[in-house]
Amino acid sequence: MADRTKQEIRFNAFDMNCVGHIQQGLWAHPRDQSHRFNEISYWMDYARRLEEGLFDGIFLADVVGVNDVYGGNADAALKGAAQVPVNDPLLLVPAMAAVTKHLAFGVTANLTYDAPFLFARRMSTLDHLTGGRIGWNIVTGYLDSAAKAIGLDQQAAHDDRYDLADEYMQVVYRLWEESWADNAVRFDRENHLYADPAKVRAIRHEGKQYRLNAMHLSSPSPQRTPVLYQAGSSTRGRQFAATHAECVFVNGQKMEGVRAIVDDIRAKAVELGRSAGDIKVFMGATIVTGRTAKEAQEKFEEYRRYVSSEAALVHASASLGIDFSKYDLDEPIETGKSNAIVSNVEAVSRSAGPQWTKRKLLEQMVLGSRQPPMVGSAEEIADQLMAWSQQAGIDGFNLSRTVVPECFDDIIAYVIPILQERGVYKTGYREGTLREKLFGNARLPESHTAASFRQRD
């Protein structure tokens, strides 16, 4: 195992273009500003704050359906603002990019319901406008409500969605990497030649799910293919991540369990001809900190008073595929086979045991989510983050918001300086695109499956 004692730790702010994201109910806290999510100035200020604090990026989650598993309808989700209303995350990026230079933007887009030809153009456009600071969180969805919204009766089975995703990736790789040669754009004013037609190809694809005969509408962007994020930790999800992902997101459980997932994904990547270093792993984390441990604990107790247990169950019901409204507090919960987020079901079973109940789940959701918070002084938080980095192979953290903006202000003011003193956090930004900052190169390496589609001279 490589020495990770001075491994650089990276931070992304983890958020969503909505009121209630992960920590359900905290939007009701009087100091929380997430209700301003419809205001462009809110997101511009947000981006400036993160860049001044040397965050690596902001990662924007998304869903294209409503959380209507709990009670069989969306009533509780609407009352508790459990990820509804929710706006498009991609439209925030240009505004935030305009007021920053280095901050990266990871955006979630559900490939199941988005035509690859149009989606590829949107991502190339964002990569151009941000100067190569865009990443794509590849998701296949988990809500039947999203499928119904586009005319289907229900979503496809979990593993079938990944089969579709593999073909989708092949199509967008060809559009991004193959359609335009590196030297296709000539911009020759004297001869009125902007692009060389001989260097631009139409992509022809005849597959099980997709048919395409078209050239990519965008010229090559700084990264061509955006940095690829993926969050699935199920068996099928890990195989997909090993094939495609550059950054993998995992949920914090027991350290040995996370280490096993990290090692497995990297081993699978190596089997596919990639390097273990081609994959960065980010763990979801919730931090409540202050000048002292006492101050942090007092803030944590204050936050707890605003948690909505019902909204937390609404979100859990949707992501686990289980209607918790049907269960009494101590009634054993039957998980069965789920078409929701399979890795979430597996994670809960590991933490709560095979016979878990609604009471056990609520005991975990102390801040309105299944993610147990880290509460402590800056030194204590730094110790925990470094332990995860060194012992579980974690490269960085997706820091879920609690009460914004103070939750990120506290991390910037208290935690980052400690990590800098210990030599595990940057004191300034590197130049270059997001992929250059992460891996040293603007383009995907030759070992990645997308590279096989590149035009060769």
From TrEMBL:
Which parts of the sequence bind FMN?
A: 62, 108, 158, 162, 233-234
Pfam family of the protein (one)? Bac_luciferase
Keywords on record: Flavoprotein, FMN, Monooxygenase, Oxidoreductase
Q: Does the keyword Amino-acid biosynthesis apply?
A: no
Annotated SUPFAM superfamilies: Bacterial luciferase-like
Name the Gene3D superfamilies for this protein. Answer: Luciferase-like domain
MF terms per GO, please?
monooxygenase activity; oxidoreductase activity, acting on paired donors, with incorporation or reduction of molecular oxygen
Q: Locate the Luciferase-like domain: which residues?
A: 32-395
Protein family (similarity comment): Belongs to the NtaA/SnaA/DszA monooxygenase family.
Name by which UniProt lists this protein: FMN-dependent oxidoreductase (Nitrilotriacetate monooxygenase family)
Phylogenetic placement of the source organism: Bacteria, Pseudomonadati, Pseudomonadota, Alphaproteobacteria, Hyphomicrobiales
